[in-house]
Amino acid sequence: MSQICVYCGKAGLSKEHVWPGWIRRHATDVMGVSPRNVQQYEGSHERRGKLPRQTSATKGHSRLTLTIKHPCKTCNNGWMSRLEETAAPILKPMIEGLQLELVSSDVKIVRAWAAKTALNFAYASEHGYTLPIEPELAHQFFEG
Question: Max CA-CA distance within the chain?
Fold first, then answer.
């Protein structure tokens, strides 16, 4: 993996949660979703000469705590953080399934948030996304 920020091209990466803290808190506190969000497996364990033993195991890790190391601290704690703070009050009611009338500025914020989040998911799932995008593109996300 490259050691430069995929958003601005500067050196010095930080850990970024793909799902932001406000979504993790909202999922747990308001919607009752377990932050562990792991798979529960049921099955049997074969043992030679004995009846199978029933087993139950939890495997995997929380999808809500997925992290990447692609943005720098400046991007992560700057425009990305401001975008999350701006998007949260718009997206929370939508996550709960409430109808909401969006004005054009809200639509721009939701689009920017969706683009940033989709890119972060791409960075989390593909090791080939190591080249920085155009430096001004990250700032254009927040500007709409």
Answer: 69
Whole-number Å distance between alpha carbons of 16 and 75: 10
Q: Is the pTM of this model over 0.85?
A: no
Q: At 25, give phi and psi (nearest 5°).
A: -65, -45
Q: How far is CA 84 from CA 2, 80, 89, 120, in A?
A: 25, 6, 9, 13
Separation of alpha carbons 25 and 44, rounded Å? 36
Q: Are 13 and 132 in contact (CB under 8 A)?
A: no
SS3 14: coil
Q: Per residue in 20-37, pLDDT tens?
A: 889 888 887 887 776 664
Q: Please give the structure tokens belonging to residue 25.
A: 């808190």
Residue 19: how many CB atoms within 10 A of its CB? 18
- The whole-angstrom separation of Cα 70 and Cα 108 is 24
Other Cβ atoms within 10 Å of 72 Cβ, number: 22
> Is 30:95 a contact under the CB 8 Å cutoff?
no
C-alpha span between 100 and 82 (Å, rounded): 22
Collapsing DSSP to helix, strand or coil, 77 comes out as helix
